[in-house]
Write a structure and sequence with these properties.
This protein has about 90 residues and is α+β, with helices and mostly antiparallel strands. It is built from 1 helix and 5 strands; from the N terminus they run H-E-E-E-E-E. It starts with 7 loop residues before the first helix and ends with a strand.
Length: about 90
């Protein structure tokens, strides 16, 4: 009885296929979402209505380098980090 030798390429091929599937289904879309979020953060302006990751709704009063000042109610202002902005509400 003779056994056939399996080439090293054929033994690595399933792992490469699994990596390719993970890349196109998980890694690549996540990177695209991160880039889109960074573009949204860079485009924040005064009077934009936003929602934070904590669920706080407010209107931007001032934009700084790393933070924004939100008006959440009359005479109530919060300073939050830009990376805590979840999304900008549609006007």
């Amino acid at each position: 009885m003779q056994t056939q030798a399996v080439s090293p390429l054929m033994s690595i091929l399933p792992f490469l296929a699994i990596f390719a599937v993970f890349y196109f289904l998980l890694i690549r879309p996540q990177r695209q979402n991160q880039k889109e979020h960074q573009r949204m953060l860079a485009a924040l302006e005064k009077n934009d209505e936003i929602v934070t990751t904590g669920g706080v709704h407010g209107t931007i009063v001032n934009v700084k380098d790393k933070s924004v000042i939100l008006r959440v109610d009359e005479n109530v202002r919060l300073e939050i980090e830009k990376n805590c902005v979840a999304y900008k509400k549609a006007k």
